């Protein structure tokens, strides 16, 4: 059991916050080493009383080793595993107003610095969310996304704009109006329509459910939609192309953050953002053979 006590130091010590997380750790540890019976509080019929008393005392010691000094002093009089766990639960599991306020301030003051690790930022965010959940404060998925977006630096503004457009699109059906913003000016999506593009080989490429925005003079179709319809989209070396089978349907070069065709009038452009929510912008009209090259 001395070895078990030494290994227990690998569990994050409980300092009075996030009781649910600490309890999960200690229970997993004890169950994994088949030391969990004292947690249940009932002696197995096949076990002698003195064996049970020794096991309970050993598990009690292992649990105490995972408590901070301050917390351990508060439960120093508890002499059985079940009484110790009940005492800790009564002191720390119930939600306290001060703890709630502290965690809420911690959440809304969380901001990712420029060029920091996104994974590390999300881990910190999820830790706080789990701590709030342990004191009975829960957020639905939509609110969590909004809080995360608000915590990102200015370089993520493009992502925020795309998310807003995507969420607005979910509320719009065919023939309805959808409000977007571009350069501070509101635009309306008046519905969905099909677009036909003449290809150099004489074929016509039909794009279905393209978003019609009269004031933008372009229409939108998602890369995900093209993928669902069996198209292959390749971005490499500052160029892009769309193929289906052996047929090249569209191609172009990267200009700034956009992937564009070489033509000056009728243009297909793809928003160059580090996200799978990228949008296609296509101006109505036919593409000539010259524009495809």
From TrEMBL:
Domain Retrovirus-related Pol polyprotein from transposon TNT 1-94-like beta-barrel, chain residue ranges per copy: 184-230
What is the name listed in the Swiss-Prot or TrEMBL entry for this protein?
Answer: Retrovirus-related Pol polyprotein from transposon TNT 1-94
Question: What species is given as this protein's source?
Answer: Vitis vinifera (Grape)
InterPro entries linked to this entry: GAG-pre-integrase_dom, PolX-like_BBD
Q: What is the lineage of its organism?
A: Eukaryota, Viridiplantae, Streptophyta, Embryophyta, Tracheophyta
Q: Which domain of life is it from?
A: Eukaryota
Q: Name one Pfam family in it.
A: gag_pre-integrs
Q: Where is the GAG-pre-integrase domain?
A: 258-293
